[in-house]
Amino acid sequence: MPFRLLISLGLLCALLPLHHGAPGPDGSAPDPAHYSFSLTLIDALDTLLILGNVSEFQRVVEVLQDNVDFDIDVNASVFETNIRVVGGLLSAHLLSKKAGVEVEAGWPCSGPLLRMAEEAARKLLPAFQTPTGMPYGTVNLLHGVNPGETPVTCTAGIGTFIVEFATLSSLTGDPVFEDVARVALMRLWESRSDIGLVGNHIDVLTGKWVAQDAGIGAGVDSYFEYLVKGAILLQDKKLMAMFLEYNKAIRNYTRFDDWYLWVQMYKGTVSMPVFQSLEAYWPGLQSLIGDIDNAMRTFLNYYTVWKQFGGLPEFYNIPQGYTVEKREGYPLRPELIESAMYLYRATGDPTLLELGRDAVESIEKISKVECGFATIKDLRDHKLDNRMESFFLAETVKYLYLLFDPTNFIHNNGSTFDTVITPYGECILGAGGYIFNTEAHPIDPAALHCCQRLKEEQWEVEDLMREFYSLKRNRSKFQKKTMNSGPWEPPTRPGTLLSPENHDQARERKPAKQKVPLLSCPSQPFTSKLALLGQVFLDSS
After folding, report:
1. Which of residues 71 and 524 earns the better pLDDT score?
2. What pLDDT sits at residue 222?
3. What is the mean pLDDT of residues 388-415?
4. Is 384 a member of any domain?
5. Tens digits of residue pLDDT in 326-353
6. Whole-model pTM?
C-alpha cells in the first residue's frame, strides 16, 4: 500500500499556514489580505481529521477563531468562497466533536465555526440581488458588489450553492440561503436550449448566454455535480429529475466513444474536440446514479491519458492524442483520483487502486520539493511552477487517502453512530453517507435534520432550551450585515420554483430588459476565460 506520500503529506499539513514570503498567483509580492482570509487553513482543515491528525485539527480551529475576519476590503470569487470557505467551515463544524473539540451547548445547531460559515455566506448574498436571481461572479467582502462588476458569470458559478447553502439553512434556521441557491438552479434550468444543453457563461442581468459551448468540464462541471449531490443530500426528486434530463442530452450530443466533447448548445455541433482534466469528475458522478458500466469505460479513457504523461494535462486534444498548446500543465488536480475513490467503493476493481498507486508515485517523483508539492507547469518535460494549490490539500490528498483506507470513518456503513441532544430533540450523527461538496468537504446529511422541528414528529422542547437557542441565534456579534449593501432581498423575478414537469411555462417568462453595464475588462475568447477559473481573489483592475 503506497502510504509513503500520504504520511509525508500528513506531516506537511502541520505547515498549513501560508508562508508570508511566498509569491502571489502571478509571481508578484503577496497580498496581506490573502493571509487574513486564512483560505488554506480552512480548506484543508477536515483533511487533518481524515488523516487522523486530531491535535492539529484542534489547534487550527483555535487559530481560526482568533484570527479570521471577513470584514476586509477584498474582491472575492462568490463560487470559490462558497465551496472552500463556507463548505470548509461547515464540514469542520460538523466534524468538531469527532475531533475532540469541546462543543458548546446546542451543537450542531450552534458553534463558532457555524457562525463563521454563516457570516461568510452572508457576505455573498448581495451577489444574488440580480433580476434573474443568478449571482454575480465576484463580491467585495466589505462593500458588496462593485458598481462596475461584469454581469457575465460561468454556469458553475451560478449552480454550485445548494449543498452548502441548504446545509447552512438547516443548521441556522434561516431559509434565505437555500432559497437563493434554489432560485439560481432553477433559472439555469429554465435557460437551457431546446436540445437540453446549457452554455458556459451567461449574463446574470439579462439571462442571455455569452459563451454557448456546452460540455461537462470547466465552467459547467459542478452545476451537474450539485444537482445530483443536492438531490441525495435533500432527498429531492426534482433535482435528480433535472440531472437525468441533462444526462440524456449530454449522452446524445457530447459523448463520442466514451469521451465527452464540447458542442454548440443550440445545434449540438462539435466546437472543441478536447478532454479537460476537470472533466475527470464525471465517472465518479455517474457512479452516484448507478451508471457503473459507462463510468468505468470513461474512466479508463482518462486513465490512458494519465499513463501517457504521468498526470492529466489541463487540455488534451482527443483526435491528435496530445496536449493542447498552453494547456500542458497539471496543478495536481483531484478529479481522476476522486472518480477512482467513488468507483472503487462501488466495484472493488483493483484497476482503480493501480491509478491511486500511479498517482502517488507520479506526485512524489515529479512534484515533491522542499516546501511541499509543486504544480507541474508542463507535463511534457515535468517543469514545475512555484505554487501549490489549496485544493491539493483539500481534495487530492484526501481522496488518495480515502482510496487506500477502507476503514476510515468517512466510509461508515451505518453500523456505528453518535447520538446527540439538541434544542430540538435527539439527533443521530456520524452514521455515514457523507456528501462531499465540490471541494471535497464532507457534509453529514443527518445533520440537516438536527436543528429543525419536524411537524410529523412534534418534538417537545423545554422552554429553557428554546430560550437559550433563541439567544444564541440572535447574537448580534455574528449577525453582521454587509456594509453598504443593505439587507438581502429576494430576486425580483417570480419566486415560485418550477419542477421539470412544468418547465415550459417557465421558458415563456423573459427577464425584464435592463441596461447592461459595460464589461470592466475587454471581452476574452472562450479558452482564455477558462484560464481564469480557480482564482479566488481578484484585483480591481
Report:
1. 71
2. 98
3. 96
4. yes
5. 999 999 999 999 999 999 999 999 999 9
6. 0.82
- Helical (H) or strand (E) element with 527: helix 526-532
Catalytic, 456? Answer no
Count, residues in the chain: 541
The one catalytic residue in 190, 225, 314, 338 is: 314
CA 532 to the chain's CA centroid: 16
Has 438 been labeled as part of a binding site?
yes
Q: Which value, in Å, is the radius of gyration of the alpha carbons in the chain?
A: 22
The answer to whether residue 370 is catalytic is no
Q: Catalytic residue among 43, 56, 203, 221, which? A: 221
Q: Is the pLDDT assigned to residue 259 strictly greater than 90?
A: yes
Where in the sequence is the domain holding 318, given as residue range(s)? 291-404
Q: Would 367 be classed as within a structural domain? A: yes
335 in active site: yes
Number of structural domains in the chain: 1
Catalytic residue, from 56, 190, 335, 389: name it: 335
Interval 60-84 mean pLDDT = 94
Q: Which residues pair with 259 in a beta bridge?
A: 256
Q: Confirm whether 130 is domain-assigned.
A: no
**In whole angstroms, what is the distance from residue 159 CA to residue 485 CA?**
23
Closest-CA residue to 266 (of 364, 359, 368, 192):
192
How many Å apart are CA 203 and CA 407, to the nearest integer? 46
221 annotated active-site: yes
